[in-house]
Amino acid sequence: MHAKAAEYRGGLAALSVNASLDEVLEQAEQHDAAATTALERAGAQLAIAEACRRLGRVERAERAWRASYRTGRDAGDAAAMAWALWSGGTLARQRGRYVFAHRLLSHAAATAERGTDRMARGYALAGLAETGRVQGDFAGTLRLHEQLLGEARADGQPRHVVWALEGIAQIHRHHGDHDTALALFTEACEIATQGDDQRGRAWALRGIADLTSLRGDVERALELLADAEETCREMRLEAALAYNHKMRGNVLYRAARYAEAEQVYRDTIEEFTRISEPRGEALARLGLVKSQARQGASPGQVDADLRALHTRFTESGLHHAADMAQAAHRELVGQEKLVTASW
Predict the structure, then answer these.
(1) CA angle 57, 276, 144 (to 5 degrees)
(2) Helix (H) or strand (E) holding 324
(3) Alpha-carbon distance 242 to 270, whole Å?
(4) pLDDT one-digit tens code per residue, 106-149
(5) How many whole angstroms separate alpha carbon 282 and alpha carbon 210?
(6) Domain-by-domain residue ranges, the chain?
(7) What CA–CA distance (Å, rounded) separates 323 from 250?
C-alpha cells in the first residue's frame, strides 16, 4: 500500500508524493503549455497552484487555483472545480483568511458531491476539519477527523489515514492527553514510513518531538526535528520547515535555553513572513516574547506585546492561540495585571 498524491491529476498522476516541489512545478508548467484539453489544463494549473502554495509563492498560487477553477467550470467538470476550490481554500487558510477558507472548502465539498471523485470530497472535508482545528474548535472537528479517518482506512488511502491520525493526535495533545497523542503520532509515522509518504512522516516526527520534549528528553526531541528538517529541505516544504523550526524554538524554551530559543524564533518569524503565513508568524512571535520575558525584558513591554498578540489572534479567529497568549500573560506578567475586560 503506497501513498499517492491525489492532487496531482491527469498526466501528472505519476508524480510521487515525495517529488520535490521544484520538479512538480516544472512538470506542471510543461503540461500546462502542452495541454490539448480543458481537463489537462485544469490539472496542470492545479499542480502549479499547489506547488506554489507550498513554496510560499502565494500570489501565483492564487492565480493558478482560480485559473484551474475557471477551466474546470468551462469544461463542466465538477471534480476539477472541486479540486481547485480545495486548493483555494487551503491557500486561504495558510494566509489566515479563515472565513474565506470555510466558504471555499464548503463549496468544494458540495461541488464534489455532484461529481464522481470521492477523493475530492474527502480532501474538501479534511480541509474544513483542519481549518476548524487550527482555530481551536477541537470538539467539533474531532468528530469530523474521526469520520474521515474511518473513510480513509476503508478506502485504503494511507496518506489520508496519516493526515487524520495527525489531526486527531493534535487535538488530544491540546486536551492534555499526551499518551494518546503520542500513540497516534507514532502510528501515523509508521504508516507514512511504510507507504513512503515522506511529507506525512516529517509532520508526524514533529508531533513526536513535541511530546518527547514535554516528557523532558530534549536531545531526542531535537534529533527527531533534525530528521524531519532534512525531509522538508529535500522536498522544499517551506511551510513545514518553518513549523519545524518553530517547534525547535518551543523545545529549547521548555529546556530553559531561552537565548537559543529567542534566536530560533527570530529566524522563524522571518521564514513565516517570507511565505506569507501569518498564523505561524504570530505563534513564533509569541514564543519570542516569552523568551525575552524569561531573560529580563521589562514587564511593561511584555504586557504590551502579549496584549497586541492576543488582539491579533482574537480578531483573526484563532481562539486557541488567543488562549495561549492570555495564559502567557498570566504566567509572565502576573494575574494582578491581567485586565480581562479588554481581552
Answers:
(1) 95
(2) helix 319-332
(3) 9
(4) 999 999 999 888 899 999 999 999 999 999 999 889 999 999 99
(5) 19
(6) 1-116, 298-343
(7) 17
pLDDT, tens digit (0-9, with 9 covering 90-100), for 192-244: 999 999 999 999 999 999 999 999 999 999 999 999 999 999 999 999 999 99
Gyration radius of the chain's alpha carbons = 20
The contacts found for 297-302 with CB under 8 angstroms, 24 or more apart, are 299/333, 299/334, 299/337, 302/332, 302/333
The CATH number of domain 1-116 is 2.30.180.10: no
Report helix, strand or coil for 125.
helix
Query: Residue 92 belongs to what H/E stretch?
Result: helix 78-94
Q: What angle do CA 236, 238, 244 make, to 5 degrees?
A: 110
Supply the pTM of this predicted model.
0.91
Alpha helices in 136-277 (DSSP H): 138-155, 158-174, 178-194, 198-214, 218-235, 238-254, 258-274
Grid coordinates given for 80 = 476539477
